[in-house]
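Readers of this paper often ask what the protein records in our data store actually look like. Nothing more is needed to write down the fold, since each code stands for a local backbone conformation. Below, we set out a record of this kind in full and without editing:
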Amino acid sequence: MTHSLRITALAAVLTLGCSGAFAAQDDDFVEDASAKGVAEVEAGKLAQEKDSSADVKAFADMMVKDHTQANIKLKSIAASKKLKVSDSAQLMDKAKSMILELRNSKPFDKAYANNQVKAHEATIDLFEKEVANGKDTDLTAFATATLPKLKEHLAHAKALAQAHGGDAGE
């Protein structure tokens, strides 16, 4: 009887440990995806403020709109799961290096387009990993639903980079 009790206790501990690991994985995805989303919105706002070309401004408008919507959905899912979402200051701190790099770039359009290619490649990688390995069905569904839009953004970013003499569009 004692042996059965030990096995049951061990199974309970392993289950709790695994769910903690899954929750940590979910927290990491939420934190990384939200930071990337905020960075996209802030970079888009910066592009809207700069004296950018019409195609860059149109792309930036799309980034602000699409990533704001995705951020709202992700925050809602995270709240329902009681997953920690970084506060605005933490998110901006993570996004700051990209924003500062863009703010000081000459020519801005080329730097913005190159940055968008690299940023979307990294974000797509993050979302594909969540689709393949995610443990939370709602987060996996969010990643699955968001991937086509991210891939569309990447295609636009590559065309933008090519149009503005960037090297990330190849």
